[in-house]
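User: Fold this; tokens only.

Assistant: Input:
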Amino acid sequence: MAARVTREAYVAETESGTGLPASLEVAWGLRERPAKGPRPGLSLDRIVDAAVRIAAAEGLGAVSMGRVAKELGVSTMSLYRYVGAKDELYVLMQEAAVGAPPEAPPAGTGWRECLAWWARAQRAVFRQNLWLLRIPTSGPPIGPNSLAWMEAALAGLDGTGLREEEKLSVLMLVGGYVRNESVLMSDLEAGMQARGVGPDESLRRYAAALGALTDAERHPAITRLLGSGVFEYGGEADTDTDFDFGLDRVLDGIEVLVESRR
């Protein structure tokens, strides 16, 4: 009964004009932080910080209301004065990790350079916080930092002649590319760590396996690929080159649309 009453009290506190949970209204500065918690020193910031520490050290799967409460030395139910559910906590963790976007390119910078800056900045955040990639995408951005990133990208598209719905689609396209590439790199790196090999050795083994499994008659294209030396890994520079290549191709496609509007 105590758990249900606490939860219902929390839900009642979320009823406002924004439709946001109370914790997100706090993040926006629209609601005062609870003056007194069930335990001295407990706060929304401490809860989020503890959850981020757990995710960074053990992965997102280790984060739960109970685990965070244990980290802080409080009861699980005491957290519900500040956060309504784990999904809500995920949003707050994401806000804390992404932070505000870095300084945008100067005024007058072309839209293509602005989007490239935005994409690389987002990728850097993902690379520093790989657990972010495991948060399910359950809705559009709504936190203050997330919307600041959105604003930065939309502002970079000013003057392109694109319709507003097209600008939003461009953001989804570029953001989706960044996220997909980041997930792929994260998964590949995790696989190499599990096997105890580095990038050079991993590609060497893959090239050796391809050489043993294929031949020029049945797989002429793969044979040419192997002969080109493409699997000679060059470290981090190679992953950056691959990312930039894909990003440039995405921007090439957007450029065709922009030019058609002019």
